[in-house]
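Board notes (copied after class):
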Amino acid sequence: MTDSHAHLDACEEPGAVVERASAAGVTRIVTIGTGIESCRAALALADEHDGVFAALGIDPHQAATKEAARLDHLRELLSHSKAVAVGETGLDNVKLYATPSEQRRLFDAQLALASGLDLPVVVHSREAAADTASALEGFVGPVILHCFSSPDLLPAALERGYYVSFAGNVTYPKAGDLRAAAAEVPQNRILVETDSPYLSPQPVRGRPNEPAHVVHTVAALALVRGEEQDELATATHANAAAAFHLE
């Protein structure tokens, strides 16, 4: 299995976390950089562990900070052999640590960077479905909609062939709308993630999340999709390889 989105640099004892993931059958992890120092930490972890790769970006919460001006640093880090995507980047109308225009400016700049480097982009979108779809309209590379929580974005995602990644929140009792969305995603476009150490799936809710727990999300998705758990695990593993251009 592949955990397509984890913040290993935010986990306690990431080495032990990776070992537990491997024991659970999670043989690939994409760890995420959310700013330049976080990106460096992600790359260090990728260098240290087989099967760990890094997506590097500056998240929308930092669009009003000096971090947003460090795109040259980001470009340099993306030349690393284990850097497999730009992101996470995107738009967030929930926390609003930066204005929508500041977020959009940073998002557009990272989309241009991904396009120029021929890399996929990992997108964070919260209550910004229309603006996210608009920003992505001209982007032709692979798009991974991380921690999918915007059913209004699903029609554009399906039409454009985006990868749709589901996290532990799809297992929550009140997340029927997300489970309904998951049932509509083609098998060759669905991904699973933990967003560790956040959003622990329902069976381990209240504890820090980690990549080993992605098995619970696979189980919940397989049930709602009417698929065998092993079949979906195999499909999402192959989809991650295709999305991130992994061997």
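Comment from the instructor: DSSP finds nine helices and eight strands in the chain. The radius of gyration is 16 Å.
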